[in-house]
């Protein structure tokens, strides 16, 4: 295992690179419903609408929820092909688009994970297959949380220009473009990890949301999701969003905090210790994972009106008495079983806290066990904030 960052040329075509291991998700939602209704046998479940539809068939096992093996089929013809990345590079200063840049065939490999190359070292989580699958599971959790809605801001049915900052796998942007054919959607990210076959009203660009925004058009809606570990100054990004919106346009942030418990059941656990280490390590990076509770205030400070905050909970497992929260807890476990703790911790703990792989593995095994303990009532507070730029279009 290498200890420091290393730039490697992947040496494979983009298509091979992705199709080599990118798993799909099955829809576990119905599986969990089945389990909650008291039927626990394994079953094969067809995929449902939503969630991007650009996945290959695969099996996903559901931790301590019923073990449900199954597959989804890719029914979404608008999205089509599985497994090729869009290679689009944008020079942030003159919006110079480069297709198929060899630069993007490079990966940064560290301790068995890969990371973004553009602005190497800026973002602490990996961009490999394991992480991309986890992000799409997280997308499912957002869908459940928001009752299948893609946004809470009242944007109307006819948005024209839409921006998704730090789009990740692009799964939200793809769903949005499919649902709003009127819109031209742009998704930006530090990593070129988005699929190539996408709706015709969507483009992806490699871009750092903390750089100057030089889009020639004004947007009707700007969206950012699960970005708590991304920006040194979220307020300055919110101000950029304000400037880039048309009068009357909406900005929405959907995000989550580190876990907590209201009844003290997390106290003294390895899970609690993990949160503290993550908090310390993210503070060292200059992007502390503690900013989300400030979002509403920063929206107002940036100039937005009609600022609304809505909160939810993502429990660590199925301890909650609330059915929707139990479903979300099962998905949290699915994420953990698919490497969430390792994705969050590997670079942060090894690079910022100086931990060895061995120490990290031993510790994460204990944290993992705590996440599965129904007597530890941990949850991530989840927050959606949206606000409108004054004026009308
Ligand atoms: C946790 S993922 C969320 C992805 C997506 N928004 C979603 O909800 O599925 C965070 C993403 O932000 C990207 N990112 C981090 N810092 C960024 C920055 N300064 N500018 C643009 N993208 C960034 C990462 O590459 C990663 O894809």
UniProtKB/TrEMBL annotation:
Region of interest (Disordered), residue spans: 35-57
Biased composition (Polar residues): 35-46
CDD domains, A to Z: AdoMet_MTases (cd02440)
One GO-annotated biological process of the protein: methylation
Keywords: Methyltransferase, Transferase
GO molecular-function terms, A-Z: methyltransferase activity
Name of this chain's protein: Putative methyltransferase
Gene that specifies this protein: tdiE_2
């Amino acid at each position: 295992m290498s200890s420091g960052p290393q730039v490697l040329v992947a040496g494979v075509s983009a298509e091979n690179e992705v199709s080599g291991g990118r798993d799909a998700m099955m829809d576990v939602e119905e599986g969990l419903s089945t389990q909650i209704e008291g039927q626990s046998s394994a079953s094969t479940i067809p995929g449902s609408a939503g969630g991007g539809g650009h996945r290959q068939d695969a099996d996903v096992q559901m931790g301590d929820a019923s073990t449900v093996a199954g597959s989804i089929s890719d029914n979404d013809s608008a999205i089509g092909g599985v497994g090729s990345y869009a290679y689009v590079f944008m020079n942030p200063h003159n919006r110079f688009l480069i297709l198929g840049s060899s630069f993007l065939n490079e990966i940064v490999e560290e301790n068995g994970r890969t990371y973004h190359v553009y602005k190497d070292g800026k973002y602490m989580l990996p961009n490999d297959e394991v992480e991309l699958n986890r992000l799409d599971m997280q997308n499912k959790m957002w869908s459940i949380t928001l009752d299948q809605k893609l946004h809470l801001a009242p944007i109307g049915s006819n948005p024209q220009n839409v921006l998704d900052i730090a789009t990740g796998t692009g799964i939200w942007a793809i769903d949005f473009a499919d649902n709003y054919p009127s819109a031209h959607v742009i998704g930006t990210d530090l990593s070129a990890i988005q699929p190539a076959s996408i709706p015709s009203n969507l483009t992806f660009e490699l871009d750092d949301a903390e750089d100057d925004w030089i889009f020639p058009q004004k947007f009707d809606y700007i969206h950012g999701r699960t970005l708590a570990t991304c920006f040194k100054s979220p307020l300055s990004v919110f101000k950029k969003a304000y400037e880039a919106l048309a009068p009357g346009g909406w900005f929405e942030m959907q995000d989550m905090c580190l876990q907590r418990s209201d009844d003290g059941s997390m106290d003294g656990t390895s899970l609690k210790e993990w949160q503290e280490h993550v908090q310390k390590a993210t503070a060292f990076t200059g992007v502390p994972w503690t900013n989300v509770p400030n979002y509403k205030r920063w929206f107002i400070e940036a100039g937005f009106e009609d600022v609304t905050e809505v909160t939810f909970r993502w429990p660590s497992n199925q301890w909650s008495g609330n059915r929707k929260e139990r479903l979300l807890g099962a998905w949290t476990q699915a994420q953990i079983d698919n490497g969430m703790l390792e994705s969050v911790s590997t670079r942060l703990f090894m690079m910022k806290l100086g931990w060895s792989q061995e120490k990290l593995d031993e510790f994460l095994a204990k944290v993992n066990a705590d996440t599965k303990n129904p007597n530890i009532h941990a949850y991530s507070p989840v927050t959606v904030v949206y606000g409108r730029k004054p004026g009308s279009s």
